[in-house]
Amino acid sequence: MTVLVVAERTGGRLAAASLDAIAVGISLAGTTAAVVGFAAGPGARESASDLGQYGLARVLVADDPSLEGAPPCAGAASVAAAADRVGADTILIGGTTYGRDLVARLAVKWKASAANGVTEVTPADGALRIRRPVFGGRATETRTLAGPRRVLSVRPHAFPPPPSAPASPTVEPLARPEDPAPLLGPKRTGVEATAAGLGPSLGDASIVVSGGRGVRTAENFHLVEELAAALGAAVGASRAVTDAGWRPGSFQVGQTGRSVSPQLYIAVGISGAIQHLVGMVSSRVIVAINSDASAPIFRVADYGIVGDLFQIVPALTAEIRRVRSA
Amino acid sequence: MEIVVCVRPVPEAETRLRVAPNGQTLDADGVKFVLAGYDESAVEQALLLKEAVAGSTVHVVACGPAPRTEEVLRASLALGCDRATWVEAPAEFAADSIRAAGAIAAVVRSPLPDLLLCGKQGGDDESGLFSGALGEHLGLPDLNYVTDLRWDAGTSRFRFQRATEAGAERWEAPAPLVVGLQQAWNDPRTAKLPNILKSRKATVAKVHADPSVPPGAGQPEKFELPAPRTGAKLIEYKTPEEAAQKLVRILREEAKVLP
Ligand SMILES: Cc1cc2nc3c(=O)[nH]c(=O)nc-3n(C[C@H](O)[C@H](O)[C@H](O)COP(=O)(O)OP(=O)(O)OC[C@H]3O[C@@H](n4cnc5c(N)ncnc54)[C@H](O)[C@@H]3O)c2cc1C
Hints:
The complex is a heterodimer.
Chain A: E1 3-7, E2 9-10, E3 13-14, H1 16-29, E4 35-40, H2 44-52, E5 58-62, H3 76-86, E6 90-94, H4 97-109, E7 113-118, E8 120-124, E9 127-134, E10 139-145, E11 150-154, E12 170-173, E13 187-193, E14 207-211, H5 222-231, E15 234-237, H6 239-243, E16 264-268, H7 274-277, E17 285-290, H8 297-300, E18 303-306, H9 309-325
Parallel strand pairs in A: 1-4, 1-6, 4-5, 5-12, 6-11, 7-11, 14-15, 14-16, 16-17, 17-18
Antiparallel strand pairs in A: 2-3, 8-9, 9-10
Chain B: E1 2-7, E2 9-11, E3 33-35, H1 37-52, E4 57-64, H2 68-79, E5 83-88, H3 91-95, H4 97-108, E6 115-119, H5 130-138, E7 142-152, E8 157-164, E9 167-173, E10 177-181, H6 193-201, E11 204-208, E12 219-224, E13 233-234, H7 240-254
Parallel strand pairs in B: 1-4, 1-6, 4-5, 5-11, 6-10, 7-10
Antiparallel strand pairs in B: 2-3, 7-8, 8-9
Helix pairs in contact in B: 2-6, 4-5
């Protein structure tokens, strides 16, 4: 099979989610030779050489300036054209907001079977068998995507990163195909960075530390942020915190906020309401710190400390700093 | 402004999930279906726009089987939508968001409305495929993960934000547009009793989904519930320092999530 991996750029480098897509592409195709990269928009050429770090030998680049500030759907025609040029039967994208939207467009445009946020992909008699969490991680579905074409996004952090195998890929420019639809109408006019650029973003981070009403005041929330900083983690919050205005809505994890699935999720002073759980229950390892041993969060956590967060969290931050500097 | 809002029946949040006897899907037997939370936000958004822009109408559309699909359409009418269309299709058909989007696109294509709203993803399968597929079927741009959508009559543009990994993006776009809504920001209204009673008698237009619309989301093979989490392993300690040391050791050596 031939796989096209769509690279996404954030903060001047390949998005972590794109590495997941590369890893899946290489394992499916069995060889980096059958994995072709695709990068669009500003920084596409830098992405091409970054893709080379994982052994990709060929990258198609659509560095069309009209894609700057354009909606994700505007890139779909270029991705489909790239897939056709290299004879790909499978397109893989990181499961970010950008990737998930692109998958939906490509499913129709490129007439492919599609799935978002897959955590496992295996070949099955010419088809692909995928698994993905559904119902906020309360169940898992397995589906078969028949050929001849498939387009998938890969759930962030669900796969180990691809091995480093530096190569210098050939870079082929790709003109943006004529697209009859008025897809360039919507324009992005600005971005307010999450958490003022502190540490990794919620969607991308492999560790998330979230605080809840238990921290009591906006000022105390810095305890959560210091623990996150010591771990190199992103900071999240329960709705109690965002509703109280202690931190902005972009911090919120849960049904009405963001869904995260990091390697490690630490819930500090969060009770574990179902609306919070659906946003984090598919994290690989969950730690809860809560003074109430009967809090529902302990039922989904792997490890728990029953205690006063004002004592436990500073001790934990100090311990992390100690082992990190050792 | 002509607004179409697409909704979908999903099991209510408190449902105890069970596996169907064939092992392939959720067991829908005895499950109560409601408007998905994301769709509630979409309906609320449609109604807010209708209130803000004089002369607007809100047309609610859903694809799926009886009786759950008709029920969520009536619930939307009770909230204040003006008319409803039920695109009747078997549950398996409607469970494929790409296919459902194709069937709904056929119904709303002419005349094209100014705005098509839906939730950012299904409240059940979370496929996140609907808004993009609908946009592509109609040849319209789609933006997903949208919050705080407004119509700026002065410039004839929608203005909205989008919640992405990078933060809160600000956008503007002309009509017609497909929008998937993030649930976070609006506080959906609840229906008043007289409106609920009225919605029971309201007309729901019914069409059959075109069976030739191709599937897109593959075939379900297995539906599994995770082994129930056994609950947290609680760390025993005498001092906060001891608790911290024990936890860090476990995270490094046992769970291997820290270097
Ligand atoms: C439609 C809807 C959507 C929602 N969406 C979301 C969502 O997306 N995300 C979300 O998070 N919530 C959401 N909620 C709200 C949710 O139901 C809960 O109200 C919320 O998650 C509670 O936040 P919390 O756990 O921080 O607060 P609480 O439930 O008040 O819990 C605080 C916890 O802190 C502990 N605590 C207190 N003091 C200390 C201390 N000194 N040391 C240690 N622990 C301490 C307490 O034991 C308690 O368990 C939603 C609700 C509705 C109705």
